[in-house]
# Entry
Amino acid sequence: MTHLKAFGISLIIFILFVWIVLVVTTKIVIPMKLDIGDSLKAPDVVELTLSEAKKKLIEAGFNFQDSLAIEWVKSPIYPDSTVISQNPIANKIVKNRNRIKLEVSSGGIEVVIPTVLEENAINASSRIKQMGLEVELVKKNYGLYPENTVAVVEPTVGTKVLKGSKVTLYIESEIEDIMIDKQEESLEESQSKSEIDEISLEDILKEI
# Structure
């Protein structure tokens, strides 16, 4: 009986041991292994220039092509294009797919959006980029301007914005169809007028 009792206790201990091993393996070890290639340590990029910060993040293994958020902040303390703060903070273990946010100094520099209305889209975009602003081009059919020229600017022309801000240029896409429609309308109006003139002339001749 004593042997059977000892065997039973040993069996229970063995079962518990196997259960614990399975739990630890499935709940801890396997998830950790799966995350090894996806977990990275965030480098310290504060007080680096934006280009240096991007380079350091890439070297650390981050792929932020679609997940890097840059917020430009007016700061008289930090030089232009210098990283003021970062999220996640330095040395934090994070997922590669996590969003990276950097606050970057604009140096307190403000620029005025130039007059680029009705200007060629390429020339307008180049001028604005040279001022240290980002440009987004959006094509839209207004039917009021020559094709591929700037129809609307947001923020509006003359607005003061921080260097590094984004400016959206709405570009006239196509005017052919609209011009054809207008020509057809003018032709119809001319034909209608001719018909009225002919009727009026006939009435006058009848009266004579």
